[in-house]
Amino acid sequence: MKKFDDLFQKFSEIKVGIIGDVMLDTYMWGHVERISPEAPVPVVLLDNRELRLGGAGNVALNIQALGAPVFVISVIGADDDANRLTGLFHQQNIDGTYVVKSSNRITTNKTRIISRNQQMMRLDAEITTDLQREEEEIIIERFKTFITEQAPQVVILQDYNKGVLTKNVIETVIGICKETGVLTAVDPKRKNFLAYKGVDIFKPNLKEVREALNLLFTDVDQGMLEKIHAELYQHLQHHISFITLSECGVFYQQENDAALIPSHLRNIADVSGAGDTVIAVAALVYAATKDMALMAKMANIAGGLVCEEVGTAAINKTKLMHECALLLS
Fold this sequence. Notes:
This protein has 329 residues and is α/β, with parallel strands linked by helices. The protein has ten helices and 13 strands. It is globular and about 65 Å long. The N and C termini lie close together (7 Å). The relative contact order is 0.14.
């Protein structure tokens, strides 16, 4: 247990930057008693409304929950949802100083309507076009300022295809991190999947890999995953492949060191946000230890734990420490 106590204490010394698509998650909790006379749809009687950090904001929330100082670099709208979002950053002790507000965009807001712990509908308000050139220049300057002022140990590029991480922004950010010796971890999406050349940790899920590389296969075993790593490396020349496999666990590989780690049995309530937790834990553990196997094992446990919660939720530090001591000692 002391090993993990020391590791978790070390997190407070690691500064983490997160650049990418932040969003507001709105949860409308209610109950259903009847069907609408206007259309064959349930009438939800609203009990509670809750605002949470989503997207890259949820990654930041997970980092903060583990005790590390975290800074967000992003572009959002100049609207009421932007004010709500920055208010949540402040409440959660997340530094939003480097977030840019643009009148050309709206703040992404995903509204989920939930009854009996089941999501009935989701309403998305968003703009997904790439940043304009002027906005790209502003966020790159903010990122440079962040690196100079904060000297972080690791930067997470968190992509949800909402337009913040353009090819230009991606390449520039990775170049700056290489020049300054900052570790990079990436949670990619389809559009710029192969733009993240030279990163330290590349963390797609299996579905994203299949789509990006146009692969057709049914059986997933270590041999197949090692072939996927080799193909990814041809495109990216990255250091570590870290692929999440849903209920099958996670896979990691760096050069010839590879392993498939099975998932632990959980009571799954909701898988939304699990990937955010996995990249947050992986980046922080690797920055603290440079131990790829420990990174993968702890992130695998953390991803399973948050799936026991309804909606996007940050990892519970105490629970994670207990589980790691129990399962990894």
